[in-house]
Amino acid sequence: MTQIYLKPNVVFEPLVNQWYAWTFLLQPATCALVMKQVHLRIMESFIRAPELHRRSAAKMAGGPFLNGGRELVPAVDALIRDTRTRAAPLLALADALRELDELLAREGSGDTLSPLYARVPEPLKGFVELGYDLRGHASYRLFERLLYDSAGYLDALQSVNGFLATSDDRSFMLSTPRFPDEHMVQIRLPFRDALYDELFAARHAGAAPDLIDRLLVHAEGGAERRAALETWFTDAPPPRPPSAPARAGQPVRVRYFNHATVLVETAEFSLLTDPIVGYPLGQGDDPFTFADLPERIDYVLLTHNHQDHIVLESLLQLRHRIGTLVVPRSHGGFLQDPSIRLALEACGFERVVEVGELDSVPVPGGEIVALPFLGEHGDLHIAAKMAFALKVDGKSMLFAADSNNLQPELYQRIAQRIGRIGTLFIGMECEGAPMSWLYGALLNEPLGRQFDQNRRLNGSDCERAWPLVECFAPRQVFVYAMGAEPWLKFISSIEYAPTSLPIVESDKLIARCHAHDIQSERLYLKKEIIL
Fold this sequence. Notes:
It comes from Burkholderia cenocepacia. 29% of the residues lie in helices and 19% in strands.
């Protein structure tokens, strides 16, 4: 056997301290707070009442309930103890962040903050700037890049768990840690390690058989895991992906992969938005998979810093194929708005380009324009969120992601600047979770229930989405980013009924588009579109 190939249905879950990895578990400050305020609390609650967690997880997939029963108690108890020792610098950082916030609330009364620098908790000294906003509220700003150089960046806690998929069922990522079993192999290497690129390239390019031996060196359980590791591979090469348009002037090919993942291919480049790539199960409704992607993806656009739009599981597997990642620029150092660029660079991505509102990135035959993105972030000041317009070869597309059209005048001004859009992709998950569902760990004091319920992570409903259609006058409107595909439930926790508000509202938009002779549909599973 001269070459081995990774089977198409091998799943790889990136983990931080056994929890499914997302960007808040990369930046040390957010990781510290999530670990202390969410992970430890869920695990300690589970130890007290495992069967309650099992029943509750079955009823409320997106709730703070660990999906398991008494059989997991020893493993969870061991992870609690391991967290308190191996992650001690992070837990100390979490305490320091709380202490600093309380210090500023207590003594930031409008006078100079200079004397407070001496009282900054030790784990944060040299990592923060203190200041007031224009209304006199004292707060701190983090020097994020330095945090990645600190004892709080514990990349030794990073690993990847691999297994053969037989169904779409996985425990919800925010509430249940992963524990290897006899069918899984856990590779304990930081995400930046180049060995992962060799492993993931074996899906389409193959690898020498000694890759298995080199992986075993870093596998939990060592050589005893050889038999399980060997099941990942085959000697049969995969089919080649369909050819892209052969020359300029040919139609642009657009492929909807799922959720907010759209592949655009021209004769000169390929572009992918918010990558989530599914795995084939051979059950009749298989998604587009890694085999349907080009060997080179010139541009990847990431719209915002939520766990269903920046999916490390897919990004790490594509790292060796990606040319340039285009990401929104954050405010810089504020806890709720961590830098996407710094997080991805720490994961080994070499070319990450930050953009602000209305910045342009040239591409062959056109440009990418970053557009303001309102809403869907619980009314928090967060800059790292962008919609993207793509203009190429006389075609134009707008990927609006979860933008909530709270101020139609904004899009009128944008339309005056960038002109008409031929194809609009708009998310309509208009009944999102309360703000605390995602950001609660960062709050020093809990938000009142009414405020929390009102400040939801909502996208546009029909009445908000329709002005975008009027503004940009597209020929096609596609509702996407609904989180409805079955393989996304472990990320989105969404399971729609015909009466679910996002379905009702998107049906209204589609009907209104049809009434105005605009092609429109709600995307699901997969679709190919020729422009």
